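Sequence design from tokenized structure. All designs in this work follow the same two-part layout: the structure record, then the generated sequence. An example of the structure record is given first.
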């Protein structure tokens, strides 16, 4: 009969799209759609990790540039060396702006060489500024300890036996002929200046140190990400799947 014939010769039509079996459910494969490009200060970046690092590096570079200009202005206000001192401050600010420029243009153009310079210079700068803070504190504590233990009129046992105020200033310009009392007064005045200037030195250097450490950290991540991207130029096509209802087989009678 026609019913028997049709039941023996059933056939399936090919599905209109590729399918895959996942946990007993029918799924449809579709190409994985990458995330939409992000606009970072006018730059379209498709890689979300690179976009995040680019934004942070550019912000840190801009902050470093602003802080370099502010430091230069502060140094000009306390300058006591005349035209020569002004020239040194201007040159110092120009050199200080080169590092943020490397970071900004390295992030803007995805240039690994400029990113490496930005990272390296910030690492070196943070080390130098850390040493400056430590040396400033140690120098002040050393002079203060010397004055406390080697008072001109009341020496303690902690004062070195070879210390002589009458010869302590012999190699200091402008104080070669000072007497012992005059040399002691000079060191007292020096200790007062160091004490008053220490908060200024630490307050100006510490934010720079923190900024340079952050710039080094994110600059290093940015540089490594750029190098990893250049080492893997090909991108594997991924497919995302989602479940769809199965279609019944078509019977032909």
């Amino acid at each position: 009969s026609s019913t028997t014939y049709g039941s023996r010769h059933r056939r399936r039509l090919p599905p209109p799209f590729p399918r895959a079996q996942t946990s007993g459910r029918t799924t449809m494969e579709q190409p994985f759609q990458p995330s939409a490009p992000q606009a970072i200060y006018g730059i379209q970046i498709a890689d979300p990790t690179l976009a995040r690092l680019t934004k942070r590096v550019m912000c840190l570079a801009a902050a470093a540039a602003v802080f370099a200009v502010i430091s230069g202005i502060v140094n000009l206000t306390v300058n006591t060396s005349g035209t020569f001192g002004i020239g040194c401050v201007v040159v110092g600010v120009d050199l200080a702006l080169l590092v943020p420029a490397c970071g900004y243009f390295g992030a803007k153009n995805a240039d690994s060489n400029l990113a490496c310079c930005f990272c390296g210079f910030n690492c070196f700068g943070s080390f130098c500024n850390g040493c400056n803070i430590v040396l400033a504190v140690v120098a002040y504590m050393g002079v203060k300890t010397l004055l406390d233990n080697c008072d001109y009129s009341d020496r303690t046992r902690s004062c070195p036996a070879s210390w002589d105020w009458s010869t302590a200033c012999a190699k200091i310009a402008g104080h070669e002929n000072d007497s012992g009392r005059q040399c002691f007064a000079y060191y007292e005045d020096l200790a007062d200046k160091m004490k008053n200037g220490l908060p200024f030195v630490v307050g100006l250097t510490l934010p720079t140190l923190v900024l340079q450490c952050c710039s080094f950290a994110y600059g290093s991540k940015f540089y490594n990400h750029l190098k990893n991207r250049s080492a893997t130029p090909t991108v594997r096509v991924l497919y995302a799947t989602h479940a769809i209802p199965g279609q019944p087989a078509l019977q032909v009678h």
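The chain is about 60% helix and 10% strand. We note this feature because it recurs in several other targets discussed in the main text.
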